[in-house]
Structures are given as C-alpha cells and as structure tokens.
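Please decode residue identities from the backbone states below.
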C-alpha cells in the first residue's frame, strides 16, 4: 500500500482559519500600536497647541463664587500677567449695572461706590495677556446681610472744622461683645502728637479723646478698618475708610450760674463777658464741661419731649446749640424780659442769651452762635445741680484721665 505524500496534501480548513486569524491579529496589533503611537503624538501636539493658544492672564475676583458674606468695600477684580479689558458687575435681582472703573495700568477694577448689604451680584471680567490672548472669569456672590453685619455712625464728619473739645464718637447699630477686636481696628491720631485713647460707654458707643483738649490747628485722622471684623457672634463689620478733620482756634466759655454771666475765652484770652439766664432753682442747669454737638439757627423746643409736659412749646427758638442729649442747650431767648439776663435764672435748665424773634439783628445770641463751632466747650459752674453724666452728649471730659483709660478695651 502506498503511503500518501503528506506535504502534498491540502491543509485542514480549521487550521487555515486559525492561521488567518493569527495573521489578522498581528496586523491589527501592528495597526493598534501604530494608532496608539499616533494618538500620543496627537495629544502632544494638542497640548502644545493649547499651551500656545492659552492666555497667560490670571484674573482674580476678590469674592468667591457662591459666597454669602462678601465684603461691601473690598470687592474688586485684579489681573496678573495681563490687562483687564472689560468688567461687568450687575445686581442680580434688578439687573442694574454697578458703575466701576479699570485702573490706568489695567491691573485692577473697583466699584465706584460701596456695595449694598445683603445683595446678590454677578461679575464677568475679561482680560488679555501681552500677546493679546483673552481670558475670562465669572463669579456670583451675595454681600453680607444687614442682619449679620454692623456699622458705626460717627462724629465728626470728614472735612469738618471743630472746636478743641470735640471727641470722636462712634455709635454701633448692634451690641458689640468683642470690644477689643472692634476698638483695635479703629485708630485715631493727631498731628499734635497727643495720645488718643478710646472709652466704651456700654456695648454700642465708643468715644476717643486725648487727655487734654485738642491742640488748636491740629489735624485728626480716623482710620476705620472694621471690614470683616467680628464684633459679636452674628455681627461682622463692613466699614473701611479713613476720615480726617481739623481743629480750629481754641474757644472755651465758662458760665457762672451764681454771677449769671458767661466769659468767652479764645486762644487763652477773654474776648467777651455775656449776661445770661441759667436754670431756675426748680430746674437747675447741669454743672460740668459740655461740648456743643449741634447748631440750629432756629429750632422748636417742646417741653413734653424732655419731661416737662406742656410747660412750654416754642417753635422758633433762635441760635440754639445743643449741650446734652437730654435737652440742655445754650440758645437765644426773645420771649423773656431783657432785664432777666445777668440778674435772674429762670430757664428749665438751658442757658439763655438775649435775642430777638426770627434770629435776625445784632444780638448777643447771634454773636455767640456765629462765634462758636461744633466741638467748642461750654463749662458750667456754680449751679446747685449735679455734674452732667459723661455720656449725656459728647461730655466725656467730665471723667478723669484714669477713669477714661480704664474704659478702654485695648
């Protein structure tokens, strides 16, 4: 029997399929390797392209996106390695644009005015780097709410010219529990070099003064840096500003209740002696150093507002200057006989000067009004009444320096 030639025999069909599959896989593998290598090159090219096209300008919006306690003062936009081209800020609720300006060097943008508390804002900032490639940043945030913030109203106002007795006085709209934190972020200094110390009257009032009256002609600077300061558990400060005022000539007037006259001294020299009528025996005038806190050419004085019922209601009191919160004034008097001035004390506690109705004419009341500044001192002596409380008006000068400094939190 003849043995068939195996080499000449056709291969089984299954084996041929396996061989074909193997070859195909090899081919796919080659393609896959080639494709992976090609992808890697493509990614490198893409990265290179992205790096080439990406802007180097780095925009930073001061308030984080989604923040609910953003500052109403410090909010703004900055850019590094580029210049801002446009910044748009809007009140989300109203859609109203917030005015602002880009700095001359293109590096920053700030709102024109202080932002509103408890308001949601959106900012879109655009910039370009040195090669003109653009960058954009967006943020939406809400400023700190009225309920969770505090402010301090203060006197005197910036730019004011005041008398030598004028303290710096803050009244906060919420009770302050961390007095040290708040006081340490308010500094008051004078060009005279006088040491200035703060004193707390309760939890909502903080006054500053030097040991002696301000030096005439000095410049006083208040730096208020309360933005972000925690004054209490749910009360964050929002103010950040610098205020300056100037001190005028030195005028201190002394009312002698017994002698029924007032001596006006300016820069240490007596300029006039004025007959007055102070509080009666039943309603005496407070003793002590009192600071003029307000001036009114004419004002209404109604006894019912200060505990005197319907005893008086004068709608046009001339040349009135407030000395206390409780209602003590030094003012013109046209309704009493001219003979009382210098001879009788007849008022309900105020110091009266001879005057005429309508606040016109050449009278002693008008002369003193025109000669006085808010912040001038009027000292009353010889009255049977007690010394005025230091916090009844701007009258902290009635405390000794040791008492004053003991009320400081820093």
């Amino acid at each position: 029997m003849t043995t068939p030639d195996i080499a000449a025999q056709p291969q089984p069909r299954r084996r041929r399929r396996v061989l074909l599959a193997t070859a195909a896989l090899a081919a796919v593998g080659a393609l896959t390797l080639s494709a992976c290598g090609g992808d890697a090159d493509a990614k490198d090219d893409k990265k290179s392209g992205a790096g080439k096209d990406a802007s180097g300008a780095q925009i930073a919006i001061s308030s984080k996106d989604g923040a609910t306690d953003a500052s109403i003062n410090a909010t703004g936009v900055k850019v590094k390695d580029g210049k801002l081209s446009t910044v748009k800020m809007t009140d989300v609720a109203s859609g109203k644009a917030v005015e602002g300006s880009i700095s001359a060097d293109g590096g920053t943008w700030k709102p024109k005015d202080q932002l509103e508390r408890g308001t949601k804002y959106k900012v879109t900032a655009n910039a370009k780097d040195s090669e003109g490639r653009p960058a954009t940043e967006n943020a939406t945030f809400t400023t700190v709410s009225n309920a969770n913030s505090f402010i301090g109203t203060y006197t005197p106002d910036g730019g004011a010219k005041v008398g030598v007795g004028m303290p710096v006085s803050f009244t906060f709209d919420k009770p302050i529990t961390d007095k040290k934190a708040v006081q340490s972020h308010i500094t008051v200094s004078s060009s005279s070099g006088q040491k200035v110390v703060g004193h707390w009257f309760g939890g909502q009032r903080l006054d500053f003064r030097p040991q002696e009256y301000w030096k005439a002609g000095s410049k006083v600077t208040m730096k208020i840096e309360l933005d972000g300061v925690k004054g209490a558990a749910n009360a964050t400060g929002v103010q950040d500003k610098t205020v300056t005022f100037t001190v005028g000539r030195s005028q201190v007037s002394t009312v002698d209740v017994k002698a029924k006259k007032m001596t006006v001294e300016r820069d240490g020299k007596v300029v006039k002696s004025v007959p007055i009528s102070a509080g009666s025996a039943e309603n005496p005038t407070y003793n002590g150093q009192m600071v003029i806190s307000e001036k009114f050419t004419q004002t209404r004085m109604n006894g019912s507002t200060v505990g005197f019922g319907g005893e008086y209601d004068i709608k046009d009191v001339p040349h009135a200057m407030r000395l206390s919160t409780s209602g003590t004034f030094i003012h013109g008097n046209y309704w009493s006989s001219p003979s009382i001035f210098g001879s009788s004390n007849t008022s309900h506690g105020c110091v009266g000067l001879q005057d005429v109705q309508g606040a016109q004419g050449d009278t002693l009341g008008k002369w003193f009004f025109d000669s006085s500044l808010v912040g001038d001192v009027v000292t009353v002596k010889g009255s049977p009444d007690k010394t005025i409380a230091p916090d009844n008006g701007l009258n902290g000068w009635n405390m000794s320096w040791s008492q004053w400094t003991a009320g400081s939190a820093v």
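Observation: DSSP finds four helices and 27 strands in the chain.
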